[in-house]
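Appendix B, Record 12. Input sequence as logged:
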Amino acid sequence: MKNNRRSKRKKRISLFLAICLLFIGVYFTATNAYPLLKSYDKGDKKETSVTAAQEKSEVTEQKKLYPTRPEKGDMIGDLYIPKLDSTLPIYHGTDEDELEKGVGHYAGSVLPGEADNSVLSGHRDTVFRKLGEVGKGDLLITNTEAGTFTFKVRKVRIVDADDRTVIVPKPKATLTVTTCYPFSYIGNAPERYVLIADLIETEVSK
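Logged structural output:
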């Protein structure tokens, strides 16, 4: 009998302690969870706010450089290549209409001088016949209504014709110039010759 009483008493004590621990857990969860969640919420809002502010700043800077955006087919400036002593007109768009007249500016990319990747393309048998002579360390200079932007070639790449990495966004003002490759190839060339240049000097029009 005594053993049964002791056993029942131990079970009651264990049950009591379990209930106490449960209530303590609920209390701490209720009192700490809200401030914790609130702090995460504030952190998310702060991060979102910073990102939004950065994007707004970039858009503002772009509007400062180019108050009006060009229409397809518009001439937006020229590309000067010191190594070749060649000045080529740049047209907004990369359809055959633009490429027949000069260098085409990929409409899905930013304009020269803006923060991101500005992509120019041209035919290897016309405007970019000698582009293969241009390489790492050479300069590419764009003159537009916004000003003169000097880029220095950082990298030369040979990629497949369907490679889309040449148009990916960049963290800073970049000029990517592409043409078909090999230069002596007859017919539709299977590759692209790509120059990737970083902005090193800006002269904004007043």
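DSSP finds two helices and eight strands in the chain.
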